[in-house]
Amino acid sequence: MKRSTTHPPTILLLAALILAVAAIAPQPADAATFADVSTSHPAHAAIEALASRGIVSGTADGTFKPDSPVTRGQTAKILVGWKQLTPAPSPDVAFRDLDATYFQYVETAAAQGWMQGYPDGSFKPYAPLTREQMAVVIVRGLGKEADAKALSASQVSSYLAAFSDRGSISPNTRPYVAFAANWGLFSGDKSGRFNPLHSITRAQFCLVLHRADQRASLTANRTALAAFMDKYLFQPRNSPITGEMVLQNTEWYGIPPIVQLVIMTAETALGDPKWGGELARHNNFGCLRYHGADTAWGELSDGKIWVAGVDWYSFPTPQIGMVAFGRYLKAYDRGFYLKFLTATPPDWRSFAERYYGQNVSGFENYVVKLKEYEDKYRAMAAERGLTL
């Protein structure tokens, strides 16, 4: 990374940023199915999408009652439909307070591990579901309970930082709420409150399920894309940084994955004096190199600092270093690089002129190589059905 002589890089603690997830499923028609859910209602698209699949339905009078609370029994029924399971009683599940309305749905949901009863053997099917309970249910329904429980205390605190009433979230539900918030499944009210003990409404329930559908659909492509970047950029150099971090930088800082891949490849290959000439003395993405990394040039010191000429950066983990990389590209010199890197296609010459200056030996070679790397990665991704 080209180091500023007046403003040294700063390591920032990550704040939770709610993911802006693009819609994956086809959008329903604009017409409103329910009389009390207009097309301008915030949950209109979510309600229509779920209703079209038979997961939720309205009442006999043609309304949906979006502000009514969702009960625990209704939650079980909706979840079973959402997961496309056939409801069936389970010999391993028995609650003393179930009637014919919900017992098969509740026992199916409980057998799947999505919902649990109370210590006295009851389920309370007609009790309203709270917002923090919904977080637990949706995380389990997505099969992400282990991931939620694996969050560190600092991650949980970071992901909940956006909620002004985070202190009122029950301790046992905090990891679930944090995970769900980080996935963009929940947001706070206008005052920034999560309202963990408030009953979740039918509209809010639909929003959470719809967002979960979108996020789960995105995950398959995201996983494939991250694996591609791991295999074709990082692993050949034994780097501990993952393709997932590239995607997170895209979300946090708006730097397209192809741009990050190209610049990191150039910094590794063109940083070698035999490729870049004087570029080697100007270049230093030290935040990308750690103890044990196999790179073409430089010297490691104390397991944390990458030494390259007179410049150095120290980052305690590859994740923090990767974040510094994304933040640098966005924020350096008031975001001057960003307009070049987010152009379609990326404006490599303008970026290189600003980054190194035209008079640096090896400049033209550098610009040519950047474009070659871009074309190479796009072609390799396309062969695997991916778009960069």
Question: Would you give an account of this structure?
Answer:
- By secondary structure, the chain is mainly α.
- The protein folds into two domains: 44-218, no CATH class; 228-383, Lysozyme.
- The chain is 46% helix and 3% strand.
- The protein is built from 16 helices and three strands.
- Strands 1-2-3 form a three-stranded antiparallel sheet, with no helix packed on it.
- Strand 1 (299-301) and strand 2 form a beta hairpin.
- It is elongated, with a radius of gyration of 25 Å.
- Mean pLDDT is 76; it is low at 1-30, 236-240 and 271-316.
List the helices and strands and how they pair.
Layout (H helix, E strand, L loop, with lengths): L43 H9 L19 H11 L20 H9 L19 H11 L3 H5 L3 H8 L13 H9 L19 H33 L8 H11 L3 H13 L3 H4 L2 H4 L16 E3 L3 E4 L2 E4 L3 H18 L2 H4 L6 H8 L7 H21 L5
Antiparallel strand pairs: 1-2, 2-3
Helix pairs in contact: 1-8, 2-3, 4-7, 6-7, 8-9, 9-13, 10-16, 15-16
Q: What is the strand arrangement across the widest sheet?
A: 1-2-3
- Tell me, rounded to a whole number, the average pLDDT: 76
Name the overall outline: elongated
Order of helices and strands: HHHHHHHHHHHHEEEHHHH
Please give a quick description of this structure:
By secondary structure, the chain is mainly alpha-helical.
Feature tags:
single chain; 388 residues; 2 domains; three-stranded antiparallel β-sheet; 46% helix; 3% strand; disordered N terminus
